[in-house]
Amino acid sequence: MSTLEIIILALLQGLTEFLPISSSAHLILPSQILGWQDQGLGFDVAVHVGSLLAVVLYFRKEVGEMAVAWLGTVNIGPAANSSQASFDGKLAWWIILATVPAGLFGLFGKDYIEEHLRSALVIAATTLLFGFLLGFADVKAGHRKVNKPLEKLGLKGAMLIGLAQAVALIPGTSRSGITMTIGLMLGLSRDNAARFSFLLSIPAIAMAGSYLTLKLILSAEGVDWYAMGLGSLLAFISAYACIHYFLILVNKVGMMPFVIYRLILGAGLLWFVLA
């Protein structure tokens, strides 16, 4: 890959991993439309590592508190001695269990998705469909007078969001988009829906990165250390900035700018495919 391709693809990964507009779609499209070569497993690993480091660092306080509280729930650390610590332990379990559907779907459906669903037509359809759903959920949240606190989400609600995350393995769906959509439909505020989505992304990105790393180790593919290093750094910077400014923006204007973008992108892709 050229340096320009590395910069564009790494920035796209970092930005779109956490925006509700589908990172997989934006990484597939350059090869579909511009004829760029596939970025390779090594680069995929690098940008996943960069994105993972960004979300863990941004939510380091929450992650640390959940880790300590979770250890207490399995009798490895001190038991929870406050209501907040007790909730942190529950939240950690919700995130762990809600990650299971995506792991199973990825394990048994990854090959089928890779072979049959990574096309511009599929991306166009899912971009439009899940864009409409996000818009519906956002309008519903905007008209709601009282939002459900995150503490009231419950394991059932967390698992519903986890099932939605599994569906996001289909390119164009957007992991963050569909998980935020379900969170909003379950009564969460835009901020809490986004925060839960970001926390849920940590084990999901870690699983995806581990899978790609294993594939890289088992393959005979050479490693472009320059592309991996630059890609990881740029993905980290763009992902960290994206999380920070998205949480500010979503509280002020909601999800509608991203809905409009998805609808325009989906319509453009549909025209490109069918023209």
Automatic annotation (TrEMBL):
Catalytic reactions on record: di-trans,octa-cis-undecaprenyl diphosphate + H2O = di-trans,octa-cis-undecaprenyl phosphate + phosphate + H(+)
InterPro entries, per database record: UppP (IPR003824)
Primary location: membrane
UniProt-listed Enzyme Commission number(s): 3.6.1.27
The keyword rRNA processing belongs to this UniProt entry's keyword annotation: no
TM helices/strands, residue ranges: 91-108, 120-141, 153-173, 193-214, 226-248, 254-274
Keyword DNA-binding applies: no
Sequence similarity: Belongs to the UppP family.
Function per UniProt: Catalyzes the dephosphorylation of undecaprenyl diphosphate (UPP). Confers resistance to bacitracin.
Note from the entry: Bacitracin is thought to be involved in the inhibition of peptidoglycan synthesis by sequestering undecaprenyl diphosphate, thereby reducing the pool of lipid carrier available.
Protein name: Undecaprenyl-diphosphatase
